[in-house]
Design goal:
This protein is of the alpha+beta class and 359 residues long. It has 2 domains: 45-104 and 229-335, no CATH class; 128-219, no CATH class. Helices cover 53% and strands 16% of the residues. It has helices spanning 2-24, 33-66, 69-75, 84-121, 236-240, 245-271, 282-306, 314-335, 351-358; strands at residues 134-136, 142-150, 155-163, 170-181, 188-199, 208-219. Strands 1-2-3-4-5-6 form a 6-stranded antiparallel sheet, with no helix packed on it. It is elongated.
Length: 359
């Protein structure tokens, strides 16, 4: 739980900063940042959960080694291999959770987040107005400025509007404004109250100032296009039966994320030993190197399928098999208290052999 909290906190901070920058540019409303961040976080949990469990498992076992609890268990005949059964049950639960995210929640959250973001991008021009700064319209056909927003009344205060769609060049200023929607046509309007409209060029004979109590400015939304969801948001059935290499690569990537956790559990058992002469971090560094290489090789195998250089899941299966065999080998050497890598030692020659070699 502690590792999960730390990793998710780091992720949330990074994503919130990214969405806040979009909100400051007027691309999305400020009140939509939280929803988008939560959807984005859910879409990455199938990648974060294996890493969280892997780090947590190594930290717990390292603590047992440093507190000499593993030595006590070993003296009672309980070795590393005895942990395979309880860890297999725990890994099964986490693997089922990862599969649920990978095959269902992640595509659903990506589709929902994409649809929500596109809705905001295609919504009316003032949907992303930030108080205290000039914001250009989405099509570049206007400029808006709102000095303040009254949360109690829901009104904008001290509003400035310039629209290129005005019949005559000019601006509109008002003390207050609010948004409303026509119940019949579903058209949205920005209703300005107690303001003035300035038309024409100052100093010209046709320049005029019109004061008004209420002025409704129609907000024309962008032409809504049919949403084309990204590949990561497509359904499992569509991906599995598609002949497009990009769709197949996404399907194999979803499957690969599920089968990676059991292999990582074996690596965690192999690297959890703490050597007082080498320090407590030696096993953790090796575990991170294995995790990074494992994930990169899986990504490379999926990229081969995406580029059409492989027609089936053979590269992904080979990567899983290689790291599974490597994990079993490391676990075997750890169980018999052998060095993780066999040491290459040169045999010393006897004096007679040395003399014969010299002759």
């Amino acid at each position: 739980m502690a590792v999960t909290f730390v990793i998710i906190s780091i992720f949330l901070v990074l994503r919130v900063m990214g969405f806040l920058s979009q909100a400051a540019e007027g691309v999305i409303p400020v009140d939509a940042v939280l929803n988008l961040v939560l959807l984005k976080m859910v879409s990455y949990l199938d990648l974060l959960l294996p890493l969280m469990f892997y780090i947590s498992l190594i930290m717990v076992l390292n603590r047992w080694y440093s507190d000499h609890e593993m030595a006590v268990l070993a003296s009672a005949g309980v070795g590393v291999m005895h942990f395979l059964k309880p860890l297999s049950l725990l890994a099964f639960v986490i693997t089922a959770l990862i599969a649920f995210f990978s095959f269902y929640l992640t595509p659903l959250s990506i589709a929902s987040g994409y649809a929500l973001e596109q809705e905001y991008r295609q919504s009316n021009e003032v949907s992303g107005v930030v108080t205290g700064r000039f914001v250009e319209g989405k099509d570049g056909n206007g400029v808006y400025f709102v000095e303040d927003y009254n949360r109690k009344t829901g009104n904008y205060e001290n509003v400035f509007v310039y629209r290129a769609s005005f019949e005559r060049e000019g601006v509109v200023v008002a003390k207050t404004a609010y948004r409303t929607e026509d119940e019949k046509t579903q058209d949205q309007f920005l209703v300005l109250q107690n303001g003035s409209r300035y038309e024409g060029n100052p100093g010209s004979p046709d320049y005029r100032v019109v004061d008004f109590e209420t002025y409704a400015l129609r907000l024309e939304p962008k032409t809504r296009k049919k949403l084309s969801f990204p590949i990561r948001a497509r359904s499992n059935t569509e991906l599995r039966h598609s002949e497009d290499p990009r769709m197949l690569s996404e399907w194999y990537w979803r499957v690969a994320k599920v089968f990676s956790l059991p292999v990582l559990v074996l690596f965690a058992l192999a690297f959890c030993h703490v050597d007082s002469r080498r320090g407590k971090s030696s096993g953790m560094v090796a575990a991170f190197i294995v995790f990074l290489s494992y994930s990169q090789m899986l990504g490379y195998a999926v990229a081969l399928i995406k580029k059409g250089q492989a027609s089936d899941a053979t590269p992904v299966v080979l990567v899983h098999c290689f790291y599974f065999i490597l994990a079993c080998y490391f676990l075997y050497r750890r169980n018999y208290n052998l060095p993780m890598l066999p040491e290459l030692r040169l045999r010393k020659k006897s004096p007679n052999q040395a003399a014969g070699a010299a002759v």
